[in-house]
Structure prediction request, 372 residues.
Amino acid sequence: MPYQPNDSLIRHFQSNGVDLGSKIEEQLNLVSPNSPNIPIYRDMMLTVLRMAQDDHNRWNAKITLQALRELEHAFRVLEQFKGRRKVTVFGSARTPVEHPLYAQARDLGEKLAQSGLMVITGAGGGIMAAAHEGAGREHSLGFNITLPFEQHANPTVGGTGNLLPFHFFFTRKLFFVKEADALVLCPGGFGTLDEALEVLTLIQTGKSPLVPVVLLDTPGGTFWEGALDFIRNQLEANHYILPNDLKLVRLVYSAEEAVVQINQFYSNFHSSRWLKNQFVIRMNHPLNEQALEHMQTAFADLCLSDQFHQHEYRGEEQDEAQFSHLTRLVFSFKARDHGRLRELVDYINLSDNWAKNKPAIPNHKREPGKVT
Prediction:
């Protein structure tokens, strides 16, 4: 979607005949000539200038500077991993090496790497160390935060270019979700539960892309089963969440099942985005006529008006032309029930619903896409 300049910012600095916005734009063009993002950078700089003009609080200025530096550094480092799908793994840093969960997390990391997927963790010990140990350095990314205890980088990513340090929890949490094409949550403490509920809230409200969220426990384990019982008996029963919201998660009891869930999600679904008022799902295979016709009635509740439309790339997504080879499924999504949207994704992933005229693209060779 084209960027809309902040007119109030521009007017704010158009006093005394001085057009500060134009002067900043001139300087930006010296650094990055002809960049389509110049209006965004101009508004960023005007925002900082307005903050300097107000000059209310030194602590506010320091927080802004630190956050901006962390964001810029992370963007730059992660650019080298841009073309690879990534899975964020959460779990307790206190899980001992001899615990069955540790072995399971190590197995998970190994199987994710074998599927061509990178493993993101908080870079600490326990579940995080196990997942990185299984995946190996080449397939690991660590988003570390300095704490007075238990959060030193694990040996797999410590001291390497695959480790990103963060000062703020909120910037670190942003990248855990932003970079994730899937999330696997193992049993853990307050931090793990915090991440689980935040991720579900972001997906439920459409603030984050729809991605597979997998709850992983050991065979016979009751950690996530108990948590889901509480959600059903308290949240769903009291209508605090929609009945379909729990369809956003999958509970599994082996590393192999977790990886199967992730690979199945991307078997046909590639990515999604909003384009003006239309929701676009990009697919590796077009749907056959029978599947598309069935969808019109079976998933009509997802549409505000009209129907589902399927077509090839028409040049409308000029900012993401790298996905021009993908088929589009377009509809006016209500943006309310993302659990039902997950059911739609499951439907388009059924191989019986594909038209048999497009070759499959191996999962590890697909370039990820995000909701914008």
In short: The two ends are 8 Å apart (CA to CA). The longest strand covers residues 269-275. The longest helix spans residues 58-78. Residues 282 and 328 are 5 Å apart (CA to CA).
